[in-house]
Amino acid sequence: MTNEQNRHDLIDLSRIVKKLLQKKRNILLYTIGVGILSAIIIVQVPRYYKSEVMLAPEVSGSTNGALASIASSFGVNIGEQETSDAIYPMLYPDLFESNDFIVKLFNIEVETIDGSVKTNYYDYLAKHQKSAPWQPAIRWFKRLFKQKAPSRPGATGKSGNGIDPFMLTETQTALVSSVKSNIQCSIDKKTEVITISVKDQDPLICATLADSVRQRLQEFITEYRTSKTRCDYEYYKKLTENALTDYEKASEIYSRYCDNHRDIILQAYISERDNLENDMQVKFNTYNALNTQLQAAKAKIQESTPAFTTLQSASVPIKAAGPKRMIFVIGMMFMAFIIISAIYIRKDIFVSVPNDREQ
Questions:
Q1: Range of the domain at 257
Q2: What is the pTM of this model?
Q3: What is the pLDDT of residues 153-178, one digit of tens each?
Q4: Are 224 and 116 members of one domain?
Q5: Main-chain phi, psi angles of 308, to 5 degrees
């Protein structure tokens, strides 16, 4: 065998440590420099706050309690299988991906914690958001290579009102995407607890939006759950009003006839009076029956209205949720130390030694 074939590579730790100690000054200077540069960069990134709301929704439909409990222990939810709802809790997070739902949030009135800005959420996002100094340059650079989108004169909403979710402008689309990234909704598969998390640069607006999103979600689900019963109620209300009008007219005709023929004993007049009385009674019975149906439909609306238990209300956060400046700086310094050290010792990691079987 040749000498090259009878030698193998080993890592000489003492040699590596010696090399690092020789270059410790340069490594330290480069690491500190990267740390200072990282601190300068991360300080320019606006801080954001986070607020959470937790809800426990009422689920319609009935299931076998023991079977549902066993299934939930394995992370499987069978509660929706016997419900007639097309929108059950597991689909609630998908609502936050809907442009229709997001656009309705634009008209929420918000105010910064220092009171300097008081406007609707759309104007706040469009005019009062902070950004890192280099982000406008990045957006300008992207526009150089981006094909210009055709103008859309139909989508002219500028203050959150009158925005058409079907036809959004480029600016409105960007704002909708920003809201979607700032609002997160998650469902615990075992307990079906809804957690709504909202991020924003202002703590008061963050908490305000979290509470408003909770309210809008409840209103949306309530409107969906009660839509059929509300239609029934309006239908019976219209019929009841018409029946009441008919009864009042029949009662007036009967009363007027009786007043005008009080002393007449002719059978023809008596028969006419009886016919008018019967007609009035029929119309009263019809009104009474429809009014009963109306009250039942009204009660059905209340029965169909879902109940939401607020487990955790929105609160104004005290500390910023991010970015984690200290962690970022320490992480960048650690990476710089590893990379710079690897550059210095790349030629000294492995050393060749003779093979033990070499003669």
A1: 243-302
A2: 0.71
A3: 545 444 555 788 888 888 899 899 99
A4: yes
A5: -120, 125
